[in-house]
């Protein structure tokens, strides 16, 4: 009986600690400045077609400070693979703090959660940068809705979304 | 030769391909002075043969590494509402008619087409209203589309991350 009580108590305590850590990790994003310590490693989640196009336009604008760049694609997505390889070959950057950059496809949610978990476990702080697709004018995608509360930087590209999601960053159209 | 370029991006949109090659629609295109029709059909199951449209010069393919050349040669672009296709066509400074696929899940594409239409950057319709739209459209109302500024994103991120 006592063992059961202890187990329940331990579980509740672990959950509480987890929630506190989650809160701390999500809140301290803006204070984290990986760029001051050297190159910023980026994990880029490329989805189908349009998402890859959008994210490569964003990647094009980033300076040489963002390296290495890792891309995550579906293993059936030859097109994205080709586009990414062509893009990277033209860049020729050849070392880091980390961020996950994603733009919409639901495939990025588990990766973002993994990034968040690393932070919660105190292993590594991973910044989550989410750019909502330009297709989204009035409503967020499901991925956007899921990631809005936990992203460190959440970009929208139309003012109607900025009005609905005050935590979001609006810089006009960026792709 | 006035050319119409039809693109469905990486998707499949058989209904559009079927509509655009129907005799009624081809007639509407010819009435507007278009003599050449180039179709990029993506993953669709319809890949019309070159001689299948008797009254217009037809060319169809699935994918190319880049559609930039086809865009350049087009006088009118008819596209599905995918972001990449629309942005590429608008970026090439072409008149754009977006055909919304009303069979798609949730059809969030409508939001952007509607907004860009409200901002007078493109015209839009569905497959069932395609012929009518081609007959009645006035392309002179379309406003130039300024490209997005990814540099603003980069500058913001550099500052936020403390990148020197």
UniProtKB/TrEMBL annotation, chain B:
Name of the protein: UDP-N-acetylglucosamine transferase subunit ALG13
Similarity comment: family membership: Belongs to the glycosyltransferase 28 family.
Intracellular or extracellular location(s): Endoplasmic reticulum
E.C. number: 2.4.1.141
Claim: Endoplasmic reticulum is one of the keywords in the record: yes
SUPFAM superfamilies: UDP-Glycosyltransferase/glycogen phosphorylase (SSF53756)
Domain Glycosyl transferase family 28 C-terminal: 3-141
Enzyme class: transferase
Pfam families given in the database record: Glyco_tran_28_C
GO terms assigned for molecular function: N-acetylglucosaminyldiphosphodolichol N-acetylglucosaminyltransferase activity
Top-level taxon of the source organism: Eukaryota
GO CC terms: endoplasmic reticulum
Species whose genome carries this gene: Etheostoma spectabile
Main location per the UniProt record: endoplasmic reticulum
GO biological-process terms attached to the record: dolichol-linked oligosaccharide biosynthetic process
Swiss-Prot/TrEMBL keywords: Endoplasmic reticulum, Glycosyltransferase, Transferase
PANTHER family reported for this sequence: GLYCOSYL TRANSFERASE-RELATED (PTHR12867), N-ACETYLGLUCOSAMINYLDIPHOSPHODOLICHOL N-ACETYLGLUCOSAMINYLTRANSFERASE (PTHR12867:SF6)
């Amino acid at each position: 009986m006592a063992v059961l009580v202890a187990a329940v108590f331990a579980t509740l305590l672990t959950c509480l600690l987890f929630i506190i850590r989650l809160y701390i990790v999500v809140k301290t994003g803006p204070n984290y400045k990986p760029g001051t310590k050297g190159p910023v490693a980026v994990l880029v989640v490329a989805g189908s077609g349009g998402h890859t196009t959008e994210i490569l336009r964003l990647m094009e604008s980033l300076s040489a400070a963002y390296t290495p760049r890792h891309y995550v694609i579906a293993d059936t997505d030859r097109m994205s693979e080709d586009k990414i390889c062509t893009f990277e070959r033209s860049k020729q950057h050849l070392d880091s703090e980390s961020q996950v950059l994603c733009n919409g496809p639901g495939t990025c949610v588990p990766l973002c959660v993994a990034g968040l978990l690393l932070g919660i476990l105190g292993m590594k702080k991973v910044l989550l940068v989410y750019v909502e697709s330009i297709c989204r004018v009035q409503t967020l995608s499901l991925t956007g809705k899921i990631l809005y509360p936990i992203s460190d930087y959440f970009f929208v590209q139309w003012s109607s979304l900025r009005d609905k999601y005050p935590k979001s960053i609006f810089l006009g159209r960026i792709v | 030769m006035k050319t119409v370029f039809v693109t469905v991006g990486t998707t499949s949109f058989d209904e559009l391909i079927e509509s655009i090659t129907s005799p009624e629609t081809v007639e509407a295109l010819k009435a507007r002075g278009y003599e050449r029709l180039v179709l990029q059909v993506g993953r669709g199951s319809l890949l019309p043969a070159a001689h299948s449209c008797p009254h217009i010069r037809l060319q169809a393919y699935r994918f190319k590494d880049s559609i930039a050349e086809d865009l350049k040669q087009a006088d009118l672009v008819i596209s599905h509402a995918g972001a990449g296709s629309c942005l590429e066509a608008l970026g090439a400074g072409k008149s754009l008619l977006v055909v919304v696929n009303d069979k798609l899940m949730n059809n969030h594409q409508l939001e952007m087409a509607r907004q860009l239409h409200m901002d007078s950057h493109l015209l839009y319709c569905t497959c069932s209203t395609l012929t009518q739209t081609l007959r009645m459209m006035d392309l002179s109302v379309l406003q130039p589309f300024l490209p997005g500024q990814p540099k603003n994103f980069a500058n913001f991120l550099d500052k936020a991350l403390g990148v020197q």
